[in-house]
Write a structure and sequence with these properties.
This protein starts with a strand and ends with a helix. Helices cover about 15% and strands about 30% of the residues. The protein is α+β, with helices and mostly antiparallel strands.
Length: about 180
């Protein structure tokens, strides 16, 4: 495999991203000063079924993995020294992809440095259910361990009628940490 330091790919080689079924992923390859040629995306995106059959055959019948789920998809020119391809994501699973450039008249493609980009596809139904952590910072700081008595000189009923809210001093993110 011939690596060319001048090639750059987006998403970057070695990057990892989570997308949801129904999204699209756009791959872009920059090939400055390499002359005419074609660009290709080598990927297993959208090919989960052949991968599953190979894995089952490998586990149950000791068949060799042939990686028949991988394919090369032609990228289209998108300006000087750029190629682009937008791939719809229709299957849930773990996928990889990397673009390459095949100079005109050559047999070996040029690859950007780095490993494959990883795309993990989640079900579309889970797009809204992904809260990682939620913290109410106001609970920390000076009010964490003490009960404060409201000031005696404040008429809360008058403030309520006027639309004010009395909020005790808040904590800060540093207090939360």
């Amino acid at each position: 495999m011939m690596v060319s330091q001048s090639l750059s790919q987006s998403p970057e080689p070695g990057s990892r991203q989570v997308v949801f079924r129904g999204d699209v992923v756009t791959f872009r390859l920059q090939v400055p000063d390499h002359g005419p040629g074609t660009a290709w995306l080598r990927t297993n995106l959208g090919r989960a079924e052949p991968a599953r059959h190979e894995i089952i055959g490998h586990i149950e019948q000791n068949q060799a993995l042939m990686y028949m789920d991988w394919s090369d998809i032609a990228m289209v020119p998108a300006g000087d020294d750029f190629f682009e391809l937008t791939v719809p994501v229709a299957e849930v699973g773990h996928f990889e992809a990397k673009a390459c450039f095949l100079p005109e008249g050559k047999d070996s493609p040029l690859w950007p440095p780095g490993p494959n980009a990883v795309i993990n596809v989640e079900p579309a139904e889970t797009v809204c259910g992904n809260i990682i952590y939620n913290a109410f910072v106001r609970q920390f700081g000076p009010n964490k361990y003490q009960r404060r008595q409201p000031p005696t000189k404040v008429d809360f009923k008058t403030l309520d009628r006027q639309g004010y809210t009395v909020i005790p001093p808040s904590g800060k993110f540093r207090d939360l940490i």
